[in-house]
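hiii so my PI (J.) wants the whole complex modelled not just the main chain, which honestly fair. so below is everything: two entries, each one labled with what it is. i double checked the lines twice but i was tired so who knows lol
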Amino acid sequence: MSFLSIKNLHASVGGKEILKGINLEVGEGEVHAIMGPNGSGKSTLSYVLSGREGYDVTEGEIVFKGQNVLEMEPHERAGAGIYLAFQYPVEIPGVSNLTFLKTAVNAVRTARGQEELDAINFLKFAREQGNILEMKDELLKRPVNVGFSGGEKKRNEIFQMAMLEPSLAILDETDSGLDIDALRIVSEGVNKLRSPERSMVVITHYQRLLDHIVPDFIHVLADGRFVASGGKELALELEKEGYAKFGIDEGASAAA
Amino acid sequence: MTTNENTARIVDSFEQAKNGLPGTWLVGAREGAIHSFAAAGFPTQRVESWKYTNLNRLARGAFDPLAEIAAPDVNAWCDLFIDGCDRIVIVNGRVDPVHSTIGALADGVSVSALSDAVEEIDPDLEKQLGQIAPDEGAPLVALNTAFMRDGLVLRLAPGTVLERPVQVVHIVDSGDTALALHPRTLVVAGDNSQATVVETFAGAEGAGYWTNAVTEIRVGKNASVQHLKRQSESVAAYHTALTQVRLDRDARFYSVALTVGGILSRNEVKVAFEGEGAECKLAGGSLLRGRQHADSTTEADHRVPNTNSDQVFRNVLDDNSHSVFQGGVIVRKDAQKTDSSQSNRNLLLSSGAQADTKPELQIFADDVKCAHGATVGDLDKTSMFYLESRGIPPKQAKALLIEAFIGEILEDVAEGSARNHIESAIANWMVEAK
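here's the output for the full assembly
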């Protein structure tokens, strides 16, 4: 049985079809990269997987660990082990990062039939995971993402991932807006979270992220369909020859 | 009964009652006040400051200012008592000596029930009571003056610090009798003194009554007063209240007023800057559902140079509830270098809810900073999705966002039992949130 299986997925936003028949099989522990120019449907795919309102699936199916994902609410998907690291993390004034995370961690633990963490064990866990990502203690106490730099926000996304222990992590352009140092810290964090029980779908526009997070498979997305799939050598081809090799005119592509 | 007939009825009941009200030296003031109320009548929506709040039903209601109701079992209300603080408990308008507890106080600090304080001739009290919040132009204040019976009197001599908060708890549990309650609280903080005062209003579920409260606060030179108010009246009750504050030089006043109770309520806070260098922060708001109506009206009256005021009001509205914010700022001609800001945000949880917000700035000086802003909106969908995508169920996600929104009114209140008291009113409201 496949871990994640996407078959003939069509999805529209505001009546406009963005995904036009996606097929993807991700095995347990595998890391798949999805590359593509702006407007190819990368972010739409990540939102459809996590269940965002306004992203309508018109055809096809998504099955994750034997469950029909499309019938699940966003919080149920998280409970089942799906995690989305946002391209643009959301600021939530008035809710401290710790309160937010404690609520989230205990919600997914309850959904997974695990016991809730008490305040002491939660803090211990948060400190351990925070150290891996070089998260400053002060960032834990601040309101969620408020006043965080771009790099701190992305680091916070990976920190949340470490805390929520998903079995499928979708990283939506986690590299965008990061300088080299921040990219290194974030990628190292992601690599530490790789495990035989955890699959990842890494969505990126640029090849440079894949120097740090080396995928098992790469898929090239253009105009809502995969136009090429292969091993990590595909990234190097893209690096050398650009998306034009796959018949993609980057300048002409629509907005995301 | 028409409004006029009802006004006449109220005047009659005053004539019957006046000799039985506490403080013989107050009779003259009470008589003047009832005349002033009779002449003016209840405020109507024709008056600009009452534009959004209709008192017709209240003005026709046969609320009884005299009935003496046997005290209910006050133990049922103990969770309203803030741990470790001195308190005056007033039940159905009369002080309850059993549950009121005043511990050892520092020299120069005096805490008493109003009915006790006015029994003695006290020139110092005469100079303050009714002088901070005058009856003129304020019919409901006048009515309170006419009938006031109980409340808190807190006086701090210069340089004294109140170690623990003082709480006054008003409990109404009057069975079928529709009481009218006119509590009066007086706080006089001498120069360089410091105090925290908490006012709590609560009533039996479903009880119909009217609380018409007046709170007078004078803050001396370089003194600091924090005033917290929790209005958890019965949702069938009316609540009208004025807190009038006068600030001397370099005085500081911080207030938070949270409304969760009452079918119709009006909470007015007015601050007069009478000395340079004074500052105030007025925070407040409401959590409303059903057909509740809550009006927060403020006035920061900058009369002298170099004073600051900041107003932060947040309302959360479900069902068909209605909030009103009238944020007044007056900067008089001589009040140069005034720095005032004001923010009112309203969160609508239902399409039937309504928020009216009206900043009212009157600026007569030219070298001043006055900022204001207001928003009305629903829960942010992107924030909701972000929280849900982390496994938090929608109801809990909504609760986190609502608590964060209303929590902004507590930003400047230090951790402690007084803050917890306000937070628990928020938590109680959240329990029943959809």
